[in-house]
Amino acid sequence: MSIQCRGFNTRNLGPRATPCDQDYLRKLAKDTDAKKLEQWYNHHVAQLYRQLNAYDEEGIFIGDGSYLFVPNNENYEGSKRLLFDEHNHPVSKEEAKKMTPAQRDRCQWRRCYRAVFLLHCDRAGERFVIAGLRVIPANQAEGPVLWELLETFLDAVGRGVLKKLIVDRGFIDGPQIGKLKTEYGVDTVIPVRKNMDILQDVRGIVKLGVKWEVYERPRRQPLIPPRPKHPIAAKREKARQKTLAKRRAQEQRQNPPDPSDVLERTRITKVPELTSWSECPVPLAGVYSKDCYADGHEKDWLLVTTNPHATASGVRDDYALRTDVEELHRQVKCFWDLTRFPSTAWNVIVSQTVFVALTYSLLQLHLLKHGHQELNRRTVETSRRLLPDGDRVIIYRQQRFAFFTLLEHTELTLSLTEKARRKALAKARRLMNEDHLT
Question: N or C: which end of the chain has fewer CB within 10 A?
Answer without folding.
Answer: C
